[in-house]
């Protein structure tokens, strides 16, 4: 299978609506007096002329999914995937007939009798392709008659009577039949998500233009957050589908699991997005002159047919519990994956068993190899790694539970000092950071303003060669054992918002500095720190006075590395959960049980967070920082952590609430993760604030 380049896929998607402009209009074609049958026949003719019916013969799954997603945006049920499957299973002769439009098949599951129910697009089809449940015969039978069955889908599904002449049968293996069902399911999910995505766009546009009570409705947080959640679900669906197609194109058998994760996500997310869009559109989107009702019908019609083509191996949770593999691996690019492989070899060969955490011997090993501050230049002890390589390295070290605190210093301080520190500061601090020998805490948050740096109240007043710092900082995690503080203070009281902020790096323990320790729910100690006219030398200033916001944001481009580390930590927890379930299958219950469905949901959400990080990293390398995608990944991952902790308790019982519970000895236990999960949602700006940030990037008004 040869993959199309991203720009080729983009061009293909952009042609769909234009090519179908004259043939298909959802309100008329889908919903008026049976007009959908003639319109769908016209659409099929367009598909033949455009070459879309050739995708099966060319084994072009990426092109199929791209066009099918765009068809969803038009609420158009053209069964391209059905023709794709027929061409793949029945050989070159049938593939040619499908390509030329002489055979126009719709897929149905195996069954007895000459009538098939719930057939989509029957009025424009010539044949029905029946898939066996396992190894057996695939049957291509002509449509003898059909009877529309009005309901939610539009155009209506039909009951189809099969003809008995010219029936073609062909034996297929169980694997071939399973792959065919996986393609059909992925296409249905992609089309449903395409329809939901279009509805989300309409709602977003409406939220920016519609005024109520003298304000655009998008300025109301309830509306803006609903739009953001829709964008997150759509972005995750796109990323999951892209990963499944990538693996299929590469010939990786894990593509079936990846596709099922995309299907599971769509089954939950597409209706959620669709309903959310309708709630924003309100009465305007409720009437059939609008696109939204037809998109609603498309979403629910497509998802309702998924059970007809259930995999023999079960849903994603079944594949994971009953198999030996975990979630499909992601690909951050050749250099990043080479760095990942190299690090795995290094850990296996050089790091003795039992050397974990922040052990000085471990820090020496990792520091000598440049892994603690991989993004720094080699002359300062790093590896000069790009963002994708840093993500791959961070994921591996986090999964193994190694040197978390040392790597936080490298990610938070290293980029800013490298970009804004003077030569003496770079020479002094960067080697310490790269060796994991710079324990510090952040002086950002304050009791009255939280993490809103635009309104921080701690001040630094110039006095000769010193600065005099006065104020209070809150939630300084690890401050009780830190040797340095990275402090943001207001140096120009007349400047507004982020202007007038300056950053300082100086030792703790200076006269006038004091701490008060607080033990958190997660078990770590965070501190309030007090500055009573603390005199700090000007040499501690990083960057020019008043340029603190630029200094602070130098590290924000590395935010996705922190997020990737968080998802890697969740991946380790999820793998630990799978290990427990595989050791005692009775805990996971039989197929179809609530426990299996829980595993499916957790897997889909975790893979969504991981794919969002991967896709945002790739986009960042191509076009610069992508704070919206990073924020989306943070929201998905942190909220998943809360739900994962709750789910583990339900699945494994009271033992999961103990420190020596089912995954005792792991980098993080189930119960510790549950307690920590609250902090993951609120730290760095609560998820409510994150949603506001994403809302701005979507163009919603303040």
Question: Could you please describe the fold and organization of this structure?
Answer:
By secondary structure, the protein is of the alpha+beta class. Among the domains are: 440-553, Butyryl-CoA Dehydrogenase, subunit A, domain 2 (Beta Barrel); 556-697, Butyryl-CoA Dehydrogenase, subunit A, domain 3 (Up-down Bundle), CATH 1.20.140.10. The protein has 25 helices and 16 strands. The strands form four sheets. Strands 1, 2, 3, 4, 5 and 6 form a six-stranded mixed β-sheet that branches. α1 (6-20) crosses α5. The longest helix is centred in the first third of the chain and has 36 residues, at 174-209.
What distinguishing features does this structure have?
702 residues, Butyryl-CoA Dehydrogenase, subunit A, domain 2, Butyryl-CoA Dehydrogenase, subunit A, domain 3, six-stranded mixed sheet, four-stranded mixed sheet, 16 strands, oxidoreductase activity, acting on the CH-CH group of donors
List the helices and strands and how they pair.
Layout lengths: L5 H15 L5 H5 L4 H16 L4 H4 L2 H13 L6 H11 L1 H9 L4 E5 L5 E5 L7 E5 L4 E14 L7 E6 L5 E5 L1 H36 L1 E2 L2 E2 L4 H29 L5 H27 L10 H13 L11 H7 L11 H17 L9 H9 L18 H14 L3 H9 L1 H7 L2 H12 L5 E4 L15 E5 L2 E12 L6 E7 L10 E7 L5 E7 L5 E13 L3 E2 L5 H6 L5 H25 L1 H4 L5 H30 L3 H26 L17 H13 L4 H11 L5
Helix pairs in contact: 1-5, 5-8, 6-7, 6-8, 8-9, 8-10, 8-11, 9-10, 9-22, 9-25, 10-11, 10-22, 12-22, 13-15, 15-20, 20-22, 20-23, 22-23, 23-24, 23-25
